[in-house]
Amino acid sequence: MRAVRLSLVTATAVAALTAVTGCTEKGNSGDDDRVIDVTATDSKCEVSKKEFPAGHVELAIENKGSKVTEVYVLFPDDRIVTERENIGPGTKHKVTAEVKAGDYTIACKPGMKGDGIRQTVKATGGTAAKRDPRLDSAVAAYRQYAQEQADATLPLAKTFAAAVKAGDVEAAKKAYAPSRIGWERTEPVAESFGDIDPKVDVREDGLEDGQKWTGWHRLEKSLWQDKKITAADKTLADQLITDLTDWQQRVGKADITPTSMANGAKELLDEVATGKVTGEEERYSHTDLVDFKANVEGAEKSYELLKPVAKENNAALVTELDKQFAAIDTLLDKYRADKTSYDFTSYDKVGDADRKQLSDGVNALAEPLSKLAAAVVTKSS
Amino acid sequence: MTDTDKAPAPSRRALIGWGGAGLALGAAAAGGAVALTREGDDLQPTAAEAGAAVDFHGTHQAGIATPVQDRLHFAAFDVTTEDRAEFVQMLKDWTAAARRMTAGKAVGEGAYGGLAEAPPDDTGEALGLKPSRLTLTLGFGPSLFEKFDLAGQRPEALVDLPQFAGDNLDKNRSGGDLCVQACADDPQVAVHAIRNLARIGFGKVVIKWSQLGFGKTSSTTPDAQTPRNLMGFKDGTRNIAGTETDRLQKFVWAEGPGWMKGGSYLVARRIRMHIETWDRTSLQEQEDVFGRDKGEGAPVGKAKERDKPFLPAMKPDAHVRLAHPDSNGGATILRRGYSFTDGTDGLGRLDAGLFFLAYMKDVREGFIRIQRHLATDALNEYIQHVGSAVFAVPPGVRDKDDWWGRTLFSKEA
């Protein structure tokens, strides 16, 4: 199913303009005020207007020069609002962005080098195009979900930490996987903070030079590989609770957009594909299928929240995703006796043929899931 | 129309024009000697030849009688969907992608320039590369006919291969509901093709196994120098040429059942060579094993490679003697194999050999007959068959409205 860029789609200005990304609003696409013709040559960068209403703008770029060029829309401090590279001679491109009122620079870079030929432009008055209210609701509901997961994780993590501190290896082993479920369901949110994930969920092979190994997986190694709990482990258990509390308190401030929700769902499946299917994530405890299930659940949550909009834009994709989520859930259920429990088969007992089947199921789901973000922002033809 | 279509033209895109050249080349190949001379070396095709596109459309699928390219990526797939309509749609999607890739174009809307939020349709690693004579050839394995109510359509000639003497088959390198043979002069073009088809297939099919091949071991252009296999011997001297329409008709193209008319049958065998022991073997024994001399490739007692072999002069267990049509009631197959080296095994030996590919009118009268006769082959001491598959290769995709497998899956066909 091909996705066609509508004129009211935000392009790459996501980070700078999170409040207005993920826009699906239609309506003023024929509004000439919002279209700026940019004619790039080897020596000039002509713009058809220097003032335009804030909100949605569209750059209709034509390269009439002999060199490949780039066109940027820049903030006054040269931060990039949006850009388009590799515009060949004789070709036309469209770039869209959402901009607030203020001064901007449009720069053409013939030969794709240097600071470019610049024009100062101004976005006036106006209002940023509003996002589909259903997407605002989806973001709000997802934020609530992420908060609930963090809130529910803390007591489970404390049970785990208490067992470690009591030196009770068996009790700690039992509490380990359940303490990770909420985290695994919403990991992209936690990862967006940058600093928490490396403290709580890093694996030994993921350590950077000089980084101290802390978090769940260090304790996993002690419990299953070393089969003993050291004094240092007890300190790490406290540290884990401190770091997870930090996570719990920051979820509410996380930068969440419809696009980041959709991409987060896809990233959860990436996590499954690269870490869980291979058995690398939980190499000592072999509780990979618990994480696998939690990742899928988190992805499915994002998907369900975005589905009403995605269905309007790409019904076939939604049909396929419904089918593939159901298929992977059915497949995972083969590995637990009780469908309400998270007591999954130890992954070291899952043979190569079964692992391939799981991998095939992940591929079958992740490929269409990679198209969800586009379906949230554009209508497919 | 999206801006992708107006994007700066990479050379693969620029070479769309080669489609015409490809047609011309194809015609030349069918009619005679192309631009190759007897002294020519088709292991290093001329620039034009290496860059050209081979026409995807035709009575027969390309990649059988068309000139053999230098590189291979062969993939066997299992079908996971139980929905016939979904599978048929995938065959149509594959056909559309194959049509573009063989013409040197990117899949779908291309590899860049599309929506920033969506992964590009094409994976991009073939941008800037020439069409490289890419051919994509689709086959249906016996196990496919157990699905989609196809049992009644299974051709009699598509038999399951029996166990042959010396077989040590790995089930993870054998069988498959479907296969795609991707051949090109540039390995990246061949790999790109399989990768993109696999991606389109996610959710409908899964890759069961795949094999990379380098260095063709047979050619269908006899005027070119005969390639050598990893044992250092010329292989396929008397192979069926793409120009020999009579022999192709007699030995390669299927005449039925109806949906297979113009198709063929493909046998794929991963043949591991015991490279290290072979290399310690005396020249005399090596030449005795094959029944040809190592330098010229001439049959025992003859001066030139293409001199007619006098089989009784060879050892009774010589490979050429046992495999020759005269020893097999005339049985002849079109060989299209490739050398492979998948690194080394855990014992420090090269994991190398011949990925044998052969097309034939009837598997029973072709490969099975010959392979049974090779039970006493002296070569068996130095090789082992470790993978095996057989496929019915349907006729060609006729035109832009046709699709792979239409004759099997379209009720009105």
Short summary:
Chain A has 381 residues and is an alpha+beta fold. Chain A has 12 helices and 9 strands.
Question: Explain this structure to me?
Answer:
The complex is a heterodimer of chains A (381) and B (413). Chain A is built from 12 helices and 9 strands. With 381 residues, chain A is of the alpha+beta class. Chain A folds into 2 domains: 35-124, Immunoglobulin-like (Sandwich); 133-376, Up-down Bundle (A middle domain of Talin 1), CATH 1.20.1420.20. In chain A, the strands form 2 sheets. A 5-stranded mixed β-sheet of chain A has the order 3-9-8-5-6, with no helix packed on it. Chain A has a 4-stranded mixed β-sheet with strand order 2-1-4-7, with no helix packed on it. In chain A, a hairpin with an 8-residue loop joins β8 (102-108) and β9 (117-124). In chain A, α8 (258-276) packs antiparallel against α9 (288-313) and α8 (258-276) runs antiparallel to α11 (352-369). Chain B has 413 residues and is α+β, with helices and mostly antiparallel strands. In chain B, α4 packs antiparallel against α5 (187-201). The longest helix of chain B has 19 residues, at 84-102. Residues 1-48 of chain B have low confidence and may be disordered.
Primary descriptors:
heterodimer; A: 381 residues; alpha+beta; Immunoglobulin-like; A middle domain of Talin 1; 2 domains; five-stranded mixed beta sheet; four-stranded mixed beta sheet; 12 helices; 9 strands; 46% helix; 15% strand; disordered N terminus; B: 413 residues; nine-stranded antiparallel beta sheet; 11 helices; 18% strand; signal (chain A)
